[in-house]
Amino acid sequence: MKRNNLSLVNKIVRSSPAVKQPKVGFFSSLNHTHMHTVLLDWGSLPHYVVLRIFQYLPLIDRARASSVCRKWNEVFHIPDLWRKFEFELNQSATSYFKSTHPDLIQQIIKKHATHLQYVSFKVDSSTESAEAACDILSQLVNCSIQTLGLISTAKPSFMNVSKSHFVSALTVVFVNSKSLSSIKIEDTPVDDPSLKILVANNSDTLRLLKMSSCPHVSSDAFCPHCVDANYASWNWGNGHRADVWTHWDHYQMDPDEKLH
């Protein structure tokens, strides 16, 4: 009797449908992923990883990301991120590009002036923008700039700034940056006497000089002082241009590439 009952139970178990396990749906998986993300400590990422990410981000995105945690804020101020900077200065009513915020300019001057190596100024046609660029130049007293560019998107720009103001501001950079090697200047009131004073302070390091629409300068102000220079170019703005090449065989570089 017992043996018959046991056989009946076995038949019932074998014939019963298998017990199904509950499936993990899309939202359950999503919630699991969300919990994992929440638990992730972004501050645990190594400095070099965050630095690598920051190097590919525009400045405004780097600034936003720096508020994620203390470590990211520390990475934001690492000197490697401040080697190259372009100051954009304009009058919003007449220009198509966005001007660098004044607060950011002051932060750079106070915290990162010593880190700047490749600096350019892009200004519109207004005198106010050119004067603002001169004001910034005059504050770069603790810097080691290697490449300097002053670019006007439209005339007259720097030509409307007084020569004394412009030369005084530029002299600050020339005197304090002992490793200045490349200069690109457009539409400025620099003349021969001014240029002689400026290049004399960097005669050992200056290798490339490119001047466009600077009608008051000549090669006489540059060549006697910078005998080790490799390339110099003047464009007086009236269709005339002069190029000076020296020691080029030992300097394999496109001059335009270096100055961009």
TrEMBL record:
SUPFAM superfamilies: F-box domain. The keyword Ligase does not apply. Residues 39-85 form the F-box domain. InterPro entries: F-box-like_dom_sf (IPR036047), F-box_dom (IPR001810), LRR_dom_sf (IPR032675). Pfam families: F-box-like. It comes from the Eukaryota. The keyword Hydrolase does not apply. Keywords: Ubl conjugation pathway. Coiled coil: none annotated. This is F-box domain-containing protein.
